[in-house]
Amino acid sequence: xxxxxxxxxxxxxxxxxxxxxxxxxxxxxxxxxxxxxxxxxxxxxxxxxxxxxxxxxxxxxxxxxxxxxxxxxxxxxxxxxxxxxxxxxxxxxxxxxxxxxxxxxxxxxxxxxxxxxxxxxxxxxxxxxxxxxxxxxxxxxxxxxxxxxxxxxxxxxxxxxxxxxxxxxxxxxxxxxxxxxxxxxxxxxxxxxxxxxxxxxxxxxxxxxxxxxxxxxxxxxxxxxxxxxxxxxxxxxxxxxxxxxxxxxxxxxxxxxxxxxxxxxxxxxxxxxxxxxxxxxxxxxxxxxxxxxxxxxxxxxxxxxxxxxxxxxxxxxxxxxxxxxxxxxxxxxxxxxxxxxxxxxxxxxxxxxxxxxxxxxxxxxxxxxxxxxxxxxxxxxxxxxxxxxxxxxxxxxxxxxxxxxxxxxxxxxxxxxxxxxxxxxxxxxxxxxxxxxxxxxxxxxxxxxxxxxxxxxxxxxxxxxx
Length: 466
Prior knowledge:
16 helices; seven-stranded parallel beta sheet; Rossmann fold
């Protein structure tokens, strides 16, 4: 199949030819005809398979054929994105695909001033790409209107429904027209996404080109078992190895990302960090230096797991295992894009073994591993039995089980299983704990009448408490 057979506007086909696109990916081939037919769509595909063009091309075709003018203060099509980087890349792609159509594309996200965004909205926009939080700010300020939206796209819908975006999305949806086309695109399908899809999609076409939460086929995966303190040396060694071009390193926290960059600089490796605490100019500069190779190592938190689309990323290295297993799939999807191959390496310390097991359960395979630990006593492999029933050594919700010491013969035992310390009482031997007294059922009120109304004594457990 080629793009020529999909029924797209000739001007779009001309732009695709100029971009070097000839054959649609599976998600594009299945989604574009349904969207051109006006159907709502739920698209599920792993990251890096071309979801942006899957919804962007038919969206541009529809707007170009409609010929309507964008409303002042509003837009004709709205695309919601979870991160600034992804929003910018979607806007850039749409501008490239629609360069011969004369349609306006604008992006709205936080971290920058409101002035230019207000001006763009005031003129009216054909396609608005926005993060939910900043768009909600414009709605609250009265500088944006959404009553003329013809099509709504939620890209990376699973991440959009994370706790940081849920409230804003719920406030945006009611101000949209009920008569519209709605498109969901996501790499995974958790219950929350399925629930929202059921609420707002009308008889949608479901397009699923790959099993949920599978990794890209051309990514060579590897796992290195190492103590937490040894990750710095292993990371530097990996980045100095032959064949490493652009490398994307993932850290779990913002502070951790900055610390990794500091350590790499001390080891003579140029790197930048990108995370939520960085200003927009800092993030753009870091991405620019990453693309040009000035700083070929970019250390990021999961904010960039789905927002960085840079060609030529040869390695993805996970300095820290992700908190959620799904994030592992999105992280390694930053390499092996557009048909290329890539290498994904995860550094896993013994205290991260639970996260490793969850990842392997999700992707339904064991990652090839190399053990560089000094202490190999901590188990890193699941034992026999059902994979989802295995718990870390020691049991008890991941807490190591304490070895119980039995009291010596004739010695009292505390509630925690240890012998009590001797207490001197006028030369007497340590006092033993009194035998437990049977206590009445406190829900049974009959003992109150028997012991108090008739002059009887209170129960033993009340007498001790006087």
